[in-house]
Specification:
Ubiquitin-like (UB roll); about 250 residues; alpha/beta; four-stranded parallel sheet
Length: about 250
């Protein structure tokens, strides 16, 4: 057994026991323990880590720890340019798309509202989420840190906020999603693309008040839902504007 010194920075401290937060501390390590093994043993999911410095030099998750090693662990950098250093993941995912666990249904709908492909089913088990994330290269969203420690989950976000609107802002800020948002292009219910449809094609199915007041409609070819710019759309539009500062798209109930 060897002893190494660890220091975690910024929001990674939220995962640590209180006495270990915002300070360097020594910790015994199992024989042939790697940086990834010890980081997660201390409570921090590997998906939350952007950079590891081992004795002052960039390191991957597979480095074996030796007696007296110093390990500094960092989350995503907002202002500091660390381009010359080795990130712990080889590359970003090609497309920003998500799979959300069973407790984040509200967040999943809001991400779809802003145009991000998000799979969600309240019957998803952890094994299924891990499989989907790996097979489809999706970012896992969860409030279960043990799910993010699974070997098959390479990209993920621990969601700190408790309410869906706050969760959406948290994910937008963390992943810088505003520039790639495409509001009101996906169905909130089934995640399929929306397309514009002529009012005459859906008029018979509309409530009389809607038929009289609105002219623009969209539909989902999967669930056959019809959407228009009603009061619910206006509330969602205000939320989107607060995140993206843009005005575009069509949606509704």
């Amino acid at each position: 057994m060897v002893t190494a010194t660890f220091r975690f920075y910024e929001e990674l401290n939220d995962f640590l026991a209180p006495e270990r937060r915002r300070r360097a501390f020594s910790c015994p390590c199992a024989r042939r323990a790697t940086t990834k093994h010890m980081i997660e043993a201390l409570g921090v999911p590997h998906t939350e880590v952007e950079l590891v410095l081992l004795n002052g030099e960039s390191s991957g998750f597979g480095a074996l720890l030796r007696e007296g090693d110093r390990v500094a662990v960092y989350p995503k950098f907002e202002a500091l340019d660390v381009t010359p250093l080795l990130r712990v993941r080889a590359q970003a995912l090609r497309c920003t798309r998500f799979v959300a666990d069973a407790h984040l249904g509200g967040l999943a709908r809001l991400l779809r509202m802003t145009g991000f492909d998000t799979l969600y089913d309240n019957h998803f088990q952890d094994d299924e989420i891990e499989r989907i994330a790996g097979a489809q290269e999706r970012i896992v969203l969860t409030r279960d840190r043990e799910l993010l420690k699974r070997r098959g989950v390479t990209h993920g976000c621990y969601v700190h906020a408790l309410h869906s609107a706050q969760q959406l802002r948290e994910i937008f800020d963390r992943l810088d999603l505003a520039r790639s948002a495409r509001p009101f292009t996906l169905c909130l219910n089934c995640n399929a693309p929306l397309r514009g449809i002529d009012k005459a094609q859906v008029a018979a199915a509309l409530p009389p008040s809607v038929r009289e007041r609105y002219q623009r409609f969209s539909t989902c070819d999967v669930c056959r839902g019809v959407f228009w710019e009603g009061s619910h759309w206006e509330r969602m539009r205000a939320l989107v504007d607060g995140l993206c500062g843009a005005r575009s798209g069509v949606d509704s109930r």
